[in-house]
Backbone:
């Protein structure tokens, strides 16, 4: 590279006046193009490309407590607009969704508080959110019933985690529910660590209740070929990661096992690479594995997902306009085909 | 509190001269008692208390790529000395262990490297560690064989994740293997997200190979009552967390579901609470849920586990001395009883 | 507190559709009210209160390379709209401003690059920004001239750092310059560590050139009573901190020394409290010192300033509307009075 | 590079048994060579090389509240053993040193505490350290006296920050004082932001008291050629950075201005590069500027300085042995020569 090649694009300074829309602000970020602002602007461009690319299946990885913190409707709406095709989630996020689908709420609280008093009051804390125990009691009771129903219908057949999510979505009637929207829109929700959540304890409850009758079976490994099949059958694959952990790893591994490699990648996280964990690993590292293509469009945005993801969605929604209608390549009805 | 109560313990400044043992350094940290040094010294005291407490079952949560990075023997030795009683691990950590048990190695590499070249060379990168693809090929082949064997023996019975780990440990002969040591010492290894690792893809391979014969069944939910039973039957419970994620959550949830609450907690992580994820959540937060007792001894050490955990082990090992023989309250043979 | 007091305000989930303005998005953040979104919404409310409070002097702390990264015009415009009254800056930020005032540019680059090649090409890197050496050469030459002029005018009198900044602003004609805007609008710029920047090396150059004539004198301590006087004379004081370091400490110390304590505080940073540095220290900690009042409105937003600060400004600008005209309590012409 | 070149050095797993000295543990870290353990082992090797290199001047950058937290004696001892040659410090660190030199103490406290109560009690908090206000009262009174004495002796001559530190060290008699040890051992202490600390407010107090008599003058820029001269005259230069900020920047800038470039660099910090601040910037970035040589030995250790720095010192001290006597190339008596 010649010297002048390094000095092509001067930073254009942001200018803020009057009423800026979110996407206009993102355009200012793109003009400046540096640090987090540059990365966020790149993320918006990549997500826009993903949803406009008729050959691309869009995977969303969900981790962290973003559902109780305010992103439930946002994600349900993304599903209904089919701006995501496949979700890979922690069990907990779907537990949080189901709690609200059954009429429960999460409450704005405070991170500096006497946790011993909360304990006495049967109020659980998630950073600055409070959750009353009765939310979980209602969930346990209602879902144990559903487990029984599902088990009866399935007659001993083992479910994969996405089939399990589908059965829950079928039974939850709240239109703002992620599980419900995904059921209606044929967006599969994989929960590779489903056991590590209230769903696991409800299963224990259910299996105690049901001793004489059929117990719901969920097979730990059954969803592996299913998610790999989605990647493998899709001409292109892209992922948006909120957080990291098992959901990010599952998508990346499916891209590897299906020998496709991701074509697009956006990761929103506060984790960093230096301690070697997957959540903070760079997207360059994924290239060495073949999880992502060497020429893929990709960026990591270091920041709080509750700020960054809504900006990403607002910016891209604004770009797409009201008339945009995405025709997804993939549909959940094709799973396993 | 009176004013003077706040001003009781002057910081004693560290003094370093001659040859200090690790525990002597930790004593200096305790004398100074501030910032990370104070927290690490507290962690050593808490771990020492845990292993000396005859009523306490010690849970170790393993996440992140600490096994390829050099902690494999360290953890196998902890198991053999029965300074841990139960392990909750990502699938990946046990994959890394099995790779070495089958003769593979991880290699010291570099984090600044051309990942496209690594890809061409079939070398996978984990931050600054390199892993040749043949490690995985050998693993896939050998373990698919084992899966077949296990399935044949179990005749359609679904395993829990710890039973699956036990079956692997039985078949891996390397004495430095964590899976092997755990098998021999009756230390159960739970892998609540076992599917999210090479174990999942080997299962896919195995089930393709085995179409006509029995396929290995692992039940997603079967280990829930088992780990809860361990907590519930143990007079006291303590955890040491490396990283966070599913392993930390699983232990904490078991403590909650068994209505015991942890008595001791040490978390080593770089994650922070502000974005609401579980891995960075404070141990105070766990008190609100009843996952940890209000009066439990607990501390979070913010740091790289590859530095902090070996210091913790070296300090406590030195304190215990060569003649110390721990008689654990819990043994894996009692699981499910 | 009663149980129900903890459960007053349900999280309202964000809803994104059509074109959202930045402030409409911030309102969604306020409705959800959790994690980073809640903190950023609180920051917008506090900054709005500060500028609407006729008795409040608004201090802005500038650290990190936010000027080359795209916030130069933004801050110059804030000064011209008198939405800040006093700036406390690193030397480097004003060096970056002066470089552009003299016709230089910063360039969008890349953080993954061969730094040895950049060195050969005389291109300096600031994360993903490239700066050609000629920027500094021009700066050195021009400013050494200005130093000579200033020294001649001042005839041996020692300047304080803000007087030095004022003299530079007087001589830089670029209307987008922060130094210029501050000069014109009578917004003092303090640079408590002015020596730790190119300004220091230009002084060395200047004093070599000037051996026979007067050398510019800048007194390290002279600005202390000046900034304390501003705090002391203002009925209320508020600060907005970008980053931390010396600029944050200087404002907080002035609030302490003037026995006022800040009434408002917003800190935007990625630093955390656990290692004991000032930049990551909580605003609660400042209360113990009397740097901030116990009842002050305050919040720390953990995030990248290049994203967070423009959002803050866009939201508050939108709220204030085009007709808002702030009449500041403090003017730089009153300094030292 | 050929494939096999990437796969040369297998990770050797750590083995911990019996009593390990700190350096033996560091050797285990070197054998494993990955993540933070690998970086810390490299840091020990680099510091050992620096002190054994007869041509190398060792700069130590001090930021953050490491002195009150327990590293005061450690650093005084390093000075007395002449394992550092030049210190660049925040003002605050030397304020903390002086407070203890005058008989004050810092107290082990707690980071979760009612800061309003501390305020009422006149107790200041630094994360989990408590400092009673009387420490500062005594300091203000005693140092204002010293300022008067120094001013009287200097008769209007402006001091550089290191001359100011020297005058303080001459007057503080505590042998454990860093300022005192540095005075006795001719190790200059530069405080480029001296004004941003209690030293600044004491100057205000002093200049009010002294109105009729001579006021102490400290020139902001006078130390620039002095520190550049040290770098320029030394065949090689190395730095160890605790934290970052102004101290790190000052050393790096001196290496640049003297056209030498550092030969060795160790940085201990929790800051990261992504938001563009200097404290988290990589050492590769400094190569582009010429602040560090392209071939320099360098490493950044991400961690808490209260843990990492004592380990570094303990390891290197153990390696050097009791009989090691370093003959430094540079002495403070040569400053400005």
Residues:
């Amino acid at each position: 590279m010649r010297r002048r090649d390094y000095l092509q694009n001067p930073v254009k300074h942001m200018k803020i006046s009057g009423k800026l829309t979110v996407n206009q602000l993102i355009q200012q970020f793109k003009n400046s193009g540096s640090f987090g602002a540059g990365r966020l602007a790149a993320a918006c461009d990549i997500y826009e490309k993903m949803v406009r690319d008729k050959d691309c299946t869009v995977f969303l990885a969900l981790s962290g407590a973003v559902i109780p913190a305010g992103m439930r409707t946002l994600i349900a709406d993304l599903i209904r607009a089919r701006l995501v095709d496949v979700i890979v989630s922690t069990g907990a996020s779907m537990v949080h969704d189901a709690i609200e689908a059954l009429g429960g709420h999460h409450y704005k609280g405070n991170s500096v508080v006497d946790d011993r008093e909360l304990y006495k009051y049967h109020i659980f804390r998630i950073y600055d959110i409070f959750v009353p125990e009765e939310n979980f009691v209602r969930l346990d009771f209602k879902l144990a019933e559903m487990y029984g129903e599902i088990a009866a219908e399935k007659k001993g057949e083992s479910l994969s985690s996405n089939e399990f999510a589908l059965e829950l979505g079928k039974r939850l009637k709240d239109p703002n529910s992620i599980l419900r929207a995904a059921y209606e829109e044929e967006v599969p929700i994989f929960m590779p660590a489903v056991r590590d959540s209230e769903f696991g304890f409800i299963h224990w409850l259910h299996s105690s209740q049901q001793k004489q009758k059929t117990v719901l079976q969920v097979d730990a490994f059954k969803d592996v070929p299913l998610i790999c099949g989605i990647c493998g059958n899709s001409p292109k694959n892209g992922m948006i990661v909120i957080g990291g952990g098992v959901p990010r790893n599952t998508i990346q591994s499916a891209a590897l096992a299906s020998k496709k490699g991701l074509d697009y990648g956006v990761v929103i996280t506060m984790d960093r690479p230096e301690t070697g964990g997957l959540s903070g690993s760079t997207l360059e590292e994924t290239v060495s594995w073949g999880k992502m293509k060497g020429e893929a469009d990709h960026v990591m945005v270091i920041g709080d997902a509750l700020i960054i993801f809504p900006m990403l969605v607002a910016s891209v929604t604004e770009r797409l306009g009201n008339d945009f209608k995405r025709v997804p390549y993939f549909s959940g009805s094709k799973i396993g085909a």
